[in-house]
Amino acid sequence: MTVQYNPESPASTGADGVEAELLGFLEGHTHSAWEPETDLFQEGGLSSLFAMQLVVHLEKSYGIAIRGTDLRLDNFRTVTRMAALVRRLRETQSDGRHG
Amino acid sequence: MSSTPPEPPDPPAADAASHALTVLGAGVMGVGITALALGHGLPVHLVDTDRQRLDRARDRISDELRLAQLLGALPPGTVPGQLSTGTDAAAAAGATAVIEAITESADLKAGLLAEVSALVRPGTPLITNTSSIPVEELAGAVDRPAELIGTHFMNPPYLIRTVEVIRGPRTGGRTMSAVLSLLAALRREAVVVRDAPGFVTSRILHPMINDAARVVQQGTATAEAVDALMQGCLGHPTGPLRTADLIGLDNLVDSLRVLHERTGDEGCRPCDLLLTLVREGRCGRKTGSGFYNYR
Which of B59, B82, B129, B131 is most buried (CB neighbours < 10 A)? Predict the structure, then answer.
C-alpha cells in the first residue's frame, strides 16, 4: 500500500516508521489519506468506536499496554500523538521484558 | 456515538459502596449497565442462565470499561466496583436493587420478576429495563407491585446520560426515590414519565426507524443515504439505521411487535427488511452486520 503524506513535515519522518505505519493503517481502514497532524475525530469525523480500534491496534502492533490516564482520547487524536505515546510506552514498558 | 461530548469530571459518588446491584441478563444492555455501575464504583452481580454468555460478558465488560475510560465517561479516580457472575437468580436475595435486562418479552420478564420478587428483602427496588413493555403488565406478577419500576437505558448506558424512568400506576414513592438516588450515584439524569407502550422514546423512535428501514426496502435510498439525510438535514446524532444497528435489530423487532400489539398502530408492524435481516442473523453491531458491516 502506498501512503501519501508530506515528506517535509517533521512529524512524518519518524525513523522507526511508527507514523508511516499508522498512516497506512488509517488509510486501509478509512479508504482515504491522512496527514500526521489531522485531528481524526474533530476534523476527520472518525467515531469513538474507531478510537478503540486504534487502541487495540497500537497495543497489538507495538507490544504495549495502554492503561490508566494514558487511556484518553486526546492521546489518539492525531498520528503524531499516537506515535509519541507508542515511543514513550515502549521505552517505559520494555524494562524486564527480555524473555 | 461520535458526537458524544466528553463528560464533565464530577466527584465520584460518595455512597457507591452502599449499593450492591444484581443485574439479570448478560445481553447488550445487561453488559452496558453493568459496565456503567462498575465504572462508578458500584459492585455488581451479573446473572445469566447461559454460562458461556457470562464468560463472554466478562471480556465485553472490560472492553466497555476501557472504551468508557477512553472517552472520559467515567468519574476520574474511582476504583471500579467488584464484578461477580452466576447462573442462579437466587443471588439477587442480597441485592440493594435488582435490574432485570433480559429479552424483550413480557412473559419472560414477568416469570423472572415473580421469582426474584419472592427472594429479595421487602423494600428492594425491582427495576425492569425495557424499551416498550408497560410496567403495569408486569406488576401483577410480583409479590409487591409498589417495588416495581421501569427504566429505559440507552445503549451504551455510560455514554448516554439521560435515562427514561417509567413510574407505573402502582410504583411506590420509596421505590421511586431509591431508584432516583441510584441513578444519581451513576451520574445519570432521570426523566420520569408515565406508563404506556413504548413510553416516550420508543413510541416516537421505533416507528421512525421502521419507516427508515421501509424506505431502504422500497429502494428509495440506501441506508447510508437515509442516515446522511437524517443527520445532515435534521440533526439526528447518528442516523436512525445506525441507531437501529446499535440497539440490535432482533430487539427492535421484539419492541415493534410489543408496540403494534398494544397500540394497533400499523406503523409499528416490523417491515419485511427488518424481519429478513433478523432471520439472516444480521442483528446489527453485536453480530458484526446489520444495515452496516462492522467486521
Answer: B131
**pLDDT 10s digits, A56-77:** 999 999 999 998 889 999 999 9
CATH number, domain B16-194, options 3.30.360.10, 3.40.50.300, 1.10.10.60, 3.40.50.720: 3.40.50.720
Q: Cα–Cα distance between B151 and B167 in angstroms, integer?
A: 9
For A44, the grid coordinates are: 476527520
Domain map of chain A by residue range? 35-94
Sheet containing strand B126-129, edge to edge, reads: B83-86, B44-47, B21-24, B97-100, B126-129, B148-152, B162-167, B189-194
Residue B212 in grid coordinates: 427508515
ipTM of this model?
Answer: 0.76
pLDDT digits over B173-224, tens only?
999 999 999 999 999 999 999 999 999 999 999 999 999 999 999 999 999 9
Pick the CATH number of B202-287 from 1.10.3980.10, 3.30.565.10, 1.10.1040.10, 3.40.430.10: 1.10.1040.10
> A44 to chain B: which residues are within 8 Å by CB?
none
| Shortest distance, CA A72 to any CA of chain B (angstroms) | 4
pTM comes to: 0.84
